[in-house]
Design brief:
Shape: globular
Helix content: 10-25%
Largest sheet: 7 strands, mixed
Strand content: 35-45%
Structural class: alpha+beta
Distance between the termini: 41 Å
Number of strands: 7
Order of helices and strands: EEEEHEEEH
CATH class: Alpha Beta
CATH architecture: Alpha-Beta Complex
Length: about 130
């Protein structure tokens, strides 16, 4: 049975909002997590961003960037440039802005994060054309 997960690539000034793994505060990835019963992948991405970072985004500002099967999960990744709020969390992880290229440095998901970054760069290149 396929399970679903969602994450958000939130970008500002060529940096992305990164969240460390709870068990490894030196491994940063995108904020996100499992889709709960009764919610869409988009709703889950928005909820997870708020829970993990304190920031808010709206559905209208999110664009689906990548969908991939990762083990038992089908992962939906959205990107966004507009948000509101201040960074804060009560969860056991660190939140910080990192250079976009640092997405490739993930210990747990380097292949997936590299694909997400490549797709994001292609979308931005196409917008400039």
């Amino acid at each position: 049975m396929t399970r679903y997960a969602s994450c958000i690539l939130l970008v500002e000034k060529n940096k992305f909002l990164a969240v460390s793994r709870k068990e490894d505060h030196d491994d940063f990835n995108l904020p996100g997590g499992s889709v709960e019963e009764g919610e869409s992948c988009l709703q889950a991405a928005i909820r997870e961003l708020k829970e993990e970072t304190g920031l808010e985004v709206t559905m209208e500002n999110l664009t689906c960037l990548h969908v991939d099967k990762d083990g038992v999960f089908r992962v939906y990744t959205y990107y966004c440039h507009e948000f509101s709020g201040d960074i804060h969390t009560v969860e056991n992880h660190k939140v910080k802005w990192l250079p976009l290229e640092d997405l490739r440095k993930s210990k747990l998901w380097p292949r997936y994060n590299s694909m997400v970054l490549d797709k994001y760069n292609n979308v931005m290149r196409d917008k400039q054309s």
